[in-house]
Amino acid sequence: MTDGKDRVAATAGDDGDAANKRYGLRLRKFIDIVVEDPFSAMLFRGAIADISPTGMRAMVDQYLPVGSKYTITMKRSPFLRMRGLVRWIRPSANETFQIGVQFIEVAPEDAKRLSTFIEIEQQRLTNG
Fold it and tell me: β-pairing, 81-91 with 42-51?
């Protein structure tokens, strides 16, 4: 689910609900992920479409209800594993869904690694 596109955008959230919008730097970086439902032990594949220090927009092939919590594992750098809360969901192409996820229960060292990763990628993309 990667296409090699990397971009930086400073935009608001994608949904129409202002309370759910996130502002600030987002890195448009496609990173394959595994989404784990801790209650059913089900695993779903997906891809991050953009990411910020506080959340992400991802493409998944399963309907994930708003308000549900999942463990998300990034399959490549920065190889983080974090808990996330689904804030919004909308249908997308080819029977997939876009979801907005707010990061919750993030260890301080993981938050630092994510922020550093976003900063390094931003510099790489703006200088390269």
Answer: unpaired
Topology classification of domain 6-127:
Thrombin, subunit H (2.40.10)
Q: What are the tens digits of pLDDT across the range 65-112?
A: 999 999 999 999 999 999 999 999 999 988 999 999 999 989 999 999
Q: How far apart are CA 8 and CA 126, in angstroms?
A: 8
CB atoms within 10 A of CB 89: 18
Whether pTM > 0.85 for this model: the answer is no
Q: CA 128, CA 114: separation in Å to the nearest integer?
A: 21
Coil, helix or strand for 72? Answer: strand
Taking residues 27-35, report their average pLDDT: 93
First to last CA, the chain: 24
